[in-house]
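Morning F.,

Quick status update on the modeling queue. The single chain you submitted on Monday has been processed. Sequence for confirmation:
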Amino acid sequence: MFKLDDDFLLSLGLSAMPAEEKEAFLQHLYEELELRVGTRLSDGLSAELLREFDKLVEAGDEAGALHWLETNRPDYKKVVAEELERLRQEVVANKDKIVGE
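Structure tokens below.
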């Protein structure tokens, strides 16, 4: 699907970022992506459906969570791709601020 790694940073023009900052920045990007995707995917779902999904995630049931997404939000891959692209564009637009140039 996608990987937030050194190759991703290279594609953003951030390969020169110091190594100690890369890991923290990638973690920040992952958390931001997770928040954005979660917000969009939860939109319009009932509290009961959201509780079902939360239980699967909290139990570490990746297969169950994936099945739940495929059943209840079959567009989840599209949502992830769209949000990743939005985040990518924001990073590219603010690249100079991020690297402190």
